[in-house]
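Section 5: illustrative case.
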């Protein structure tokens, strides 16, 4: 169902984003990868080496000019943008009184402004062709709060509100907008180590990538507003 479509995946250098890129490529999707470091080009070459169609762009998702340039080059290369996966995100966990304003601003720049900038960059194209799917990888803390995570949690509440409003604005154009809100995932997030022993019962990056494929593959008459995923851990703080 997704074969021949083109997807932009942000934060695709490693972890969840890279897994999403591979899962979509296996479905026959052409990939435009956006990452903040030069590592994004290595992933692009890696995908092409396996016979997949891919292009890579180094850009800060919070920088509107850089994102617009990456989207324009994607359209030049592949002719269309059918799927946008807003995956890029950062996080830290500390008390409010220990959080400084620069840290707060940077979280919002990447986690919220990045989603806004990337989504806005594809809207006119998707509206014109009256189709498209925008998927944002958020977090289950968009539905409840945690101590030592006020700044991060605030960004995810913001993303949830933004996505819900955008979904209503774009419905008449046949463009679907949804979020995937995972709990603890074994990845590099917040400076962690993927594959660490204490993460053996956490979800895996492929779990999130499979959810993206499921949401993007939904029949055109169906809107999946939100998918919430949790690891099967006793006493997990499910909202």
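Designed sequence:
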């Amino acid at each position: 169902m997704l074969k021949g479509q083109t997807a932009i995946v942000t934060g695709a250098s490693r972890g969840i984003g890279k897994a999403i890129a591979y899962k979509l490529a296996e479905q026959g999707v052409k990939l435009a990868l956006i990452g903040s470091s030069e590592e994004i080009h290595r992933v692009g070459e890696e995908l092409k080496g396996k016979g997949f169609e891919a292009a890579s762009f180094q850009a800060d998702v919070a920088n509107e000019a850089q994102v617009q340039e990456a989207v324009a080059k994607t359209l030049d290369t592949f002719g269309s943008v059918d799927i946008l996966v807003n995956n890029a995100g950062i996080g830290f966990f500390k008390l409010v009184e220990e959080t400084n304003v620069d840290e707060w601003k940077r979280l919002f720049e990447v986690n919220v402004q990045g989603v806004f900038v990337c989504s806005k960059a594809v809207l006119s194209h998707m509206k014109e062709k009256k189709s498209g799917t925008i998927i944002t990888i958020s977090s289950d803390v968009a539905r409840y709060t945690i101590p030592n995570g006020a700044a991060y949690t605030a960004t995810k509440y913001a993303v949830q509100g933004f996505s819900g409003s955008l979904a209503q604005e774009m419905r008449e154009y046949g463009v679907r907008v949804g979020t995937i809100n995972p709990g603890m995932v074994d990845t590099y997030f917040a400076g962690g180590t993927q594959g660490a022993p204490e993460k053996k019962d956490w979800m895996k990056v492929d779990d999130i990538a499979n959810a993206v494929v499921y949401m993007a593959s939904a029949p055109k008459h169906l809107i999946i507003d939100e998918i919430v995923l949790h690891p099967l851990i006793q006493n997990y703080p499910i909202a």
